[in-house]
Design goal:
CATH superfamily of the largest domain: Chloramphenicol acetyltransferase-like domain
Largest sheet: 7 strands, mixed
Number of helices: 10
Oligomer: single chain
Enzyme class: transferase
Pathway: Amino-acid degradation; L-lysine degradation via saccharopine pathway; glutaryl-CoA from L-lysine: step 6/6
Radius of gyration: 25 Å
GO molecular function: dihydrolipoyllysine-residue succinyltransferase activity
Protein name: Dihydrolipoyllysine-residue succinyltransferase component of 2-oxoglutarate dehydrogenase complex
InterPro entries: 2-oxoacid_dehydrogenase, 2-oxoacid_DH_actylTfrase, Biotin_lipoyl, CAT-like_dom_sf, E3-bd_dom_sf, PSBD, Single_hybrid_motif, SucB
Order of helices and strands: EEEEEEEEHHHHHEHHEEEEEEHEEEEHH
Length: about 400
């Protein structure tokens, strides 16, 4: 008896995906709930599990685009497990020969793990596996620290080459690879946002002295009580919610010829992942405390890094916050996350001389940018919104008092 492996429905708007990697080979014996493949769509990357145990027969190859509902493999349940357990188990747990090299040992891991090992120069043998029977998973590789880098990688910068030296004649000057569905969709949405909205950006700067002092004073007590650190993002989320309540015109969107006014505060937090930018949504931020927001952000960051983000996690936000400052960005003009009408860009904190009470003082300053849809948001509303965010951060007591 053979059980079909069918591409499952992942969301109303998703009709197909690309098989990014097979984690098994033709003829392998698989256990129930073993990861068989990774499927990339224009929104998420998901893993397919075996519904039954048996010998697998592949009907599609890596890189194939497959429709939702398509049969991509079968599992023969009548086949018995090989002596000593499944082929994957025997490969992954077998002791290497004395002369076996790390490269040969990597053949026992999944194609996704091998791909990350090659792209990021990480030795799978040095990574602690959390998968079945200690197998190194894709998530383990993405979380690997620099100490897990392959020996061939050197920490010091290579010596500069003479500018006049020509490249080796046998080396490739360019490489070409297919754009992933997720990257293609990101590109499509970013271009559409610029073409469809009358996008404008306004700027301001915020003195982070009070926020940094607050974190320093209460960080230990906050961690002890809540188990997470008090970060900047939860304070920015609260400042944004406060500003949206004061300037509700930003919390609206265009639907055809109608303006839809939102009365809830689901805030999207842009997260950079190896697959591209994702924006998971923290729900009902007006009802959450700082610790709850921090935990939600940590949870989403972990899910995004491990490729576990779902469609529901990315849907329904009314406003987005993006933090280019973690990469050192000093100033930028963020692009709207359609159909939202506003997005806040955070930037790096820099010590700068500023005038305070008639005297020059060195303060930790951050530039803020708000991009907005000028079709429904007037300049006065956008500027007022950004000033409200600035005021809440420079005087955090406003967030507690709701003023």
């Amino acid at each position: 008896m053979a059980t079909e492996v069918i591409v499952p429905a992942l969301g109303e708007s998703i009709t197909s995906g690309i098989i990014a990697a097979w984690n098994v080979k033709e003829g392998d014996y698989v256990e129930k709930d073993q990861v068989l493949y990774e499927l990339e769509t224009d929104k998420i990357t998901s893993e397919g599990l075996a519904e039954v145990a048996g010998v697998v027969s592949l009907k599609a190859e890596e890189g194939d685009e497959v429709d939702i509902g398509a049969v991509i493999a079968t599992i023969d349940e009548s086949a018995s497990a090989p002596a000593g357990g499944s082929s994957e188990k025997s490969e992954s747990t077998a002791a290497p020969a004395e002369n076996e090299t790390p490269e040969k040992k990597s053949d026992a891991v999944s194609p996704a793990v091998r791909r990350i090992a090659e792209e990021e120069n990480i030795d799978p043998a040095s990574v602690s596996g959390t998968g079945k029977d200690g197998r190194v998973t894709k998530g383990d590789m993405l979380k690997a620290q620099p100490t897990s880098r392959m020996p061939a990688e050197k920490s010091e910068a290579p010596a500069p080459k003479p500018a006049a030296k020509a490249p080796a004649p046998t080396g490739e000057r360019t490489t070409r690879k297919r754009m992933t569905p997720l990257r293609a969709k990101i590109a499509e949405r970013l271009v559409a946002a610029q073409q469809e909205a009358a996008m404008l950006t306004t700027f301001n700067e915020v003195d982070m002295t009070a926020v940094m002092g607050l974190r320093k004073q209460y960080q230990d007590a906050f961690v002890k009580k809540n188990g997470v650190k008090l970060g900047f993002m939860s304070l920015f989320v609260k400042a944004v919610v406060n500003a949206l309540q004061e300037v509700p015109g930003i919390n609206a969107q265009i639907d055809g010829n109608d303006i839809v006014q939102n009365h809830f505060y689901d805030i999207g937090i842009a997260v950079s992942t190896p697959k591209g930018l994702m924006v998971p949504v923290v729900r009902d931020c007006d009802q959450l405390g700082l610790a709850e927001i921090e935990k939600e952000i940590i949870n989403y960051a972990t899910k995004a890094r491990d490729g576990k983000i779902s469609i529901d996690d990315l849907s329904g936000g009314v406003f987005t916050i993006t933090n280019g400052g973690i990469f050192g960005s000093m100033l930028s003009t963020p692009i709207l996350n359609a159909p939202q009408s506003g997005i806040l860009g955070m930037h790096t904190i820099q010590q700068r001389p500023v005038a305070v009470d008639g005297k020059v003082d060195i303060r930790p300053m951050m530039y803020l940018a708000v991009s907005y849809d000028h079709r429904i948001v007037d300049g006065k509303e956008a500027v007022t919104f950004l000033v409200k965010v600035k005021q809440a951060l420079e005087d955090p007591a406003r967030l507690l008092l709701g003023v």
